[in-house]
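Feature request, filed as a ticket because there's no other form

It would be nice if the structure record came with a short human-readable summary line next to the tokens. Right now we just get the raw output. Example of a typical job, pasted below so the devs can see what we mean:
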Amino acid sequence: MKSDIYKNILISMLVLVLIGIVMMLIDYFVYGKSFWNSTTCKLIFAGLFVYYLYRFYLKK
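Raw output as currently delivered:
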């Protein structure tokens, strides 16, 4: 049961961070805009937040 929770947390963290990085690269190379737009920041920080939740649940 706990291993399923940890696996889902890690998968969601990786997905959020990877989507943020891909959007950042698309903005830079395709549209020529800056790396940091609000959506990219929100996705990357959401991924980091999920990582900290993972660490919190791992301590329990």
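Something like this underneath would help us a lot:
The helical segments are 2-29, 38-59.
The chain has one domain: 2-59.
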